[in-house]
Automatic annotation (TrEMBL):
Protein name: Protein kinase domain-containing protein
Listed GO MF terms: ATP binding; protein serine/threonine kinase activity
Pfam hit, one: Pkinase
Species of provenance: Chlamydomonas leiostraca
Domain Protein kinase: 1-122
Taxonomy, superkingdom: Eukaryota
Length: 122
């Protein structure tokens, strides 16, 4: 999968933690922990300011991290549109961030809250 972890490794552990049993239906939502919160709060907290962890300490590096995050969001939106999905509520509150040391922006961006989305005609 995209995270680099093999599903065969972690799925049995998750099912065990959820007390799943063969033959019984189980409905659970398992989501990634977005340790940096949403884009709005991260920006207000200074995550994209010079000196913030992971951005190299310079103003240029901080701006580059923000631009890379915006690019990642726009790539996600392009993917949605290619799948004929209209998000209809894109805003900084609906972009969640996961800190990743090797990521070019220092964090991976996830588009969330599809409550107003619509399927587009092909």
């Amino acid at each position: 999968d995209a995270s680099g972890h093999d599903q065969r490794e972690w799925l049995p552990l998750v099912l065990e933690q959820l007390h799943a049993q063969p033959g019984h239906f189980l409905v659970e939502l398992v989501m990634e922990r977005c340790d940096m919160g949403n884009l709005k709060q991260a920006t207000l907290d200074g995550a994209f300011s010079p000196g913030a962890p992971g951005n190299g300490g310079s103003r240029r590096a901080a701006m580059l991290a923000l631009v890379r995050t915006a690019r990642e969001v726009s790539q996600g939106m392009c993917h949605l549109h290619a799948c004929h999905v209209l998000h209809a509520d894109l805003k900084p509150d609906n972009i969640l961030l996961i800190a990743e040391a090797g990521h070019p922006a220092g964090a991976r961006a996830l588009i969330t809250d599809f409550g107003l989305c619509a399927a587009l005609e092909e």
